[in-house]
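Incident log, entry 3
Record: Transcriptional regulator (117 residues)
Problem: checksum mismatch between cached and fresh output.
Input:
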Amino acid sequence: MNTLDDLLAGEELLSLPAVAEMLGVPVTKVHDLVNARKLVLYRKDGRKAVPALLFADGEMSKFITGAITVLFDGGFSEEEILSYLFTEDDSLPGRPIDALHGHGAREVIRRAQAMAF
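Fresh output:
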């Protein structure tokens, strides 16, 4: 089984200031999004980053934030949420994070609800 570090090894990771700049908000607003459980952080070696795929065209995606919220509400940790989103799932096919950017978004949300409860 892949670790979260393995799953995110080839992914673009954004610093919190980079996320703030992309969204056109102060960095404190990014912290607010994390605290509101609309965004999850990847933590490694004392650094915090956000996978770029958690955004769609440089904006927050309602499907991605919805999946994150449902999983948090179901008791998943940030690491478990990122692992779920970035792990291949042959039944989708692909990874949930990729499906959330396309026609599989509602199915990923449905599965997240089922997993969480």
